[in-house]
Amino acid sequence: MNLRCICAFEVNRLDLSLDHFASEGLHEECGVFGIYSDGSLAPAYAAYNGLLALQHRGQESCGIAVNDCGVISYHKDMGLVTEVFHNQVLDSMEGQMAVGHVRYSTAGGSVRENSQPLVMRYIKGVLAIAHNGNLTNAVEIRQELEHRGAIFQTTIDSEVIAYIIARERIHCHSIEEAVRRTVSQINGAYSLLVMSPRKLIAARDPYGFRPLCMGKAGDAVVFASETCALDAAGADFVRDIEPGEIVVADHTGVRSIRDHCGKKKALCVFEYIYFARTDSVIDGIAVYETRKQAGRILARNFPVEADLVIGVPESGIDAAIGYSEESGIPYEKGIVKNNYIGRTFIKPSQSERAKSVRIKLNPLCDSVRGKRVVMLDDSIVRGTTCDRIVRMLKDAGAKEVHLRISSPPFLWPCYYGTDIPSKEELIACNHTIEEIGRLSGADSIGFLPLESLHEMLGCKDAGFCDACFSGNYPAQTTIKMLKGKQRGGVKLKQC
Fold it and tell me: What 3 state SS string does 39-50 have?
């Protein structure tokens, strides 16, 4: 098999020791896209359009790998999709299959070497892998592989997965069997796309921490983190990939492997609160409706006399509409967002987040001047932005600002692939709600009650992970896994 690399990586200084890997504790929220085309769609352009729709899930790096009869071309780099790709690059990437990826990381992981898809050659040919999530036993597996002579080029979990797949493929008859054996060995969160010379494989972890769906455009099969990417690529939604399911697309059609299905679903509830795009539907639940419902719940639990309701763009707007509908207080646009500035939550450093806030949002002075304002925001994590926004509104003439948050307080770090930081960085771990309100400068504050999450989703049987709010981690893990990543008290299920 041939491997054609369009973008050559410049080698940067990168400490790849196990200690570094563990101490950094890379936690990602990314987006994946894959297509097995019948010729009706150009895979590279379909992937490009899909990644544009998933840009909100990661803004530090992106990449696309295309398979042309076993020859894999790939292009990836730091930056937004529109910055990394142009027509000349896309036109050169012809083939029948493609996988794409958008990524962000925490500090220490934002380097070109860690961008995806990961493309690797091994004895059976070439693989391209795109992964969203975080393996809870990656450190253990990585150490075992290094003791056997493996040399790692990155610090991402995806490379650990790739090594296991390659190892298993040597001893079995097909790439899908190698993937099946691999998912028996890895723990944690993953929505995974694997492209071999002749097949495209999608896999979702047994708990369904991360979203993954399937669509079709003619006879072309498309996989994506969110339904909005299917829409952008011209594909119709077919279904969500089930937790634990492996789906194989090749010239014979689509088939499913369900050996690992059956665990209680634990989709990250923060997908509905913040990460997912408003127009996406995840596991049958519309994101827009959940956010409006969160606003309605807040209006019932934390009523206030006010003149208007506004939302912090983007995800706060949907909750603000719900608050307005329930309370009868008029909704108005009160804050304008500069859409060319990245999301503050997914900036890798505090200084970058602070800089972004200052230039990202601007008040509509005529709307808020002299008014009692209810402001809806999706979350308070570190507390680095809400005080600036409240101050900005009051400087614009708002008489009162009442802060309503469409999520419970963050009290626990995440180990499944979301950048919820250490307990030391979580403002709710160090301050009461009343103190947070005072620190923000708001006249009142209210968080979505933890017990209201099921009501927000509109489904009593909806399975989701709320560990960042409750500390109840659904998946088994070990103390060893947390060595170097331990960031505060955790309610662990011992194994």
Answer: CCCCHHHHHHHH
Nearest CA among 4, 153, 1, 162 for reference residue 74? 4
Least Cα distance to 284 among 333, 241, 246 occurs for: 241
What would the mean pLDDT of 175-193 be, rounded to a whole number?
95
The DSSP result for 366-380, as a single string, is HHHTT-EEEEEES--
Are 155 and 21 spatial neighbours (Cβ–Cβ below 8 Å)?
A: yes
pTM greater than 0.85 (yes/no)? yes
Residue reference for tokens 């400490």: 15
What single string gives the DSSP state of each residue in 431-461?
A: S-HHHHHHHHT-SEEEE--GGGHHHHHT-TT
pLDDT number for residue 97: 97
Share of the chain above pLDDT 90, in %: 68
CA distance 290 to 287: 5
Query: Domain boundaries in the chain?
Result: 3-266, 281-473
What pLDDT digit, counting tens, does each position of 238-283 carry? 999 999 999 999 999 999 999 999 888 999 999 999 999 999 999 9
Count the alpha carbons within 13 Å of 142 in the hemisphere toward its beta carbon. 24
The CA distances from residue 107 to 24, 327, 350, 419, in Å, are 8, 41, 10, 10
Domain 3-266 identical in fold to domain 281-473: no
CATH of domain 281-473: 3.40.50.2020
Residue where the block lists tokens 């008029």: 330
Find tokens 């090749």 and name the residue: 250
Of 5, 30, 213, 365, the catalytic one is: 30
Query: The tokens 């937790």 sit on which residue?
Result: 243
Contact 28, 46 (CB under 8 A): no
**Cβ 375 vs Cβ 404: under 8 Å:** yes
> Which pair of structure tokens corresponds to residue 304?
């206030």
pLDDT of residue 112: 84
CATH H superfamily, domain 3-266: Aminohydrolase, N-terminal nucleophile (Ntn) domain (3.60.20.10)
Regarding beta strands 125-135 and 188-195, do their DSSP bridges make them parallel or antiparallel, or are they unpaired?
antiparallel
Question: Angle CA(365)–CA(308)–CA(287) in degrees, nearest 5?
Answer: 105
Please check whether residue 310 is in contact with residue 376, taking contact to mean a CB–CB distance below 8 angstroms: yes
Q: Is 261 a catalytic residue?
A: no
- Tell me the pLDDT tens digit for each residue of 54-66: 999 998 999 999 9
